[in-house]
Recover the amino acids of this structure.
């Protein structure tokens, strides 16, 4: 495995690493509904930490993801005095149309799976239909001054037997680039990424599409987190999704959820490499405590 220190330039990364905190991803699979007031308390603490972006909620069917049915109420209670930008997940055109109405939201995220099985399971649409949705989303984002983030879901493989290889990943990245997507996050979803796959996939994409901002949305067992974080930044990742304590997983993916990359591990690693993150660690500590009310 390529070591982090061989390619990591901390002074270069200080101003370019974007940390995306993902409480929405962490909460969406919880069985018990988290009270709206508690969500607001937790998210407001995370907003004060100073992350680049907060993946705070989603405009999806409440039948599909009951936990996110109060996204609009949560949004109304957020204190946006800081610099952290908001990202909301959408799964269809209706979700896009609802999300773009809110001036507080900067990013709309769409899960575009390169696994046909998962695309149907996650958004009830085919890959081809979802590509059309991406086109519509880009149009509406331009019209309403939003930015689109497209997640290349199942980007490291899938558990359904659908064909996967790096050429397929590159093909769909190219399709999205041709549509005008400017931010692509290669997403693991089910924890099948490895340091080797990260190293094989990310650098060629960055080289092939220099005008696209590439990020990683990885899932992992606690034992594998550090090696994936090391590989990600060695491979040139400048946009990393993570969640406090590694909570979360996609409820549409499988019964056995594999958690997110833990934010505290990302912070610890980057700090050890000399990256100045400029985060309010006191607020982070308070958010860690409040998280105990949500994740039992």
């Amino acid at each position: 495995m390529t070591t982090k220190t061989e390619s990591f330039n901390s002074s270069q990364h200080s101003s370019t690493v974007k940390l995306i905190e993902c409480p929405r991803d962490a909460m969406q699979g919880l069985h018990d509904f988290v009270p709206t007031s508690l969500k607001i308390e937790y998210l407001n603490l995370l907003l004060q930490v100073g992350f680049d972006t907060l993946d705070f909620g989603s405009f999806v069917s409440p039948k599909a993801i009951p936990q996110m049915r109060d996204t609009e109420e949560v949004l109304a209670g957020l204190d946006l005095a800081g610099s952290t930008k908001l990202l909301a997940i959408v799964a269809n055109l209706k979700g896009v149309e609802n999300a773009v109405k809110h001036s507080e939201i900067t990013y709309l995220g769409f899960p575009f799976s390169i696994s046909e099985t998962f695309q149907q399971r996650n958004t009830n649409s085919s890959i081809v239909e979802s590509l059309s949705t991406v086109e519509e989303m880009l149009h509406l984002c331009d019209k309403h001054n939003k930015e689109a983030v497209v997640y290349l879901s199942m980007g490291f493989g899938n558990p359904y037997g659908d064909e996967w290889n790096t050429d397929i990943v590159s093909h769909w990245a190219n399709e999205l680039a041709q549509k005008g997507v400017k931010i692509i996050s290669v997403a693991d979803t089910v924890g099948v990424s490895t340091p080797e796959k990260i190293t094989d996939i990310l650098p060629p994409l960055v080289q092939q599409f220099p005008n696209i901002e590439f990020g990683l949305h990885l899932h992992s067992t606690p034992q594998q987190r550090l090696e994936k974080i090391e590989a990600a930044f060695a491979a040139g990742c400048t946009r990393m999704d993570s969640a406090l304590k590694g909570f979360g997983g996609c409820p549409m993916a499988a019964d056995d959820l594999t958690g997110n990359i833990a934010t505290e591990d990302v912070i610890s690693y980057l700090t050890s490499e000399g990256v100045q993150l400029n985060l309010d660690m006191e607020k982070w500590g308070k958010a860690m405590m409040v998280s105990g009310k949500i994740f039992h």
User: Anything to note?
Assistant: The radius of gyration is 18 Å. The mean pLDDT is 92. The beta strands are 18-21, 53-59, 85-90, 105-113, 147-153, 183-187, 213-217, 239-242. Residues 94 and 288 are 34 Å apart (CA to CA).
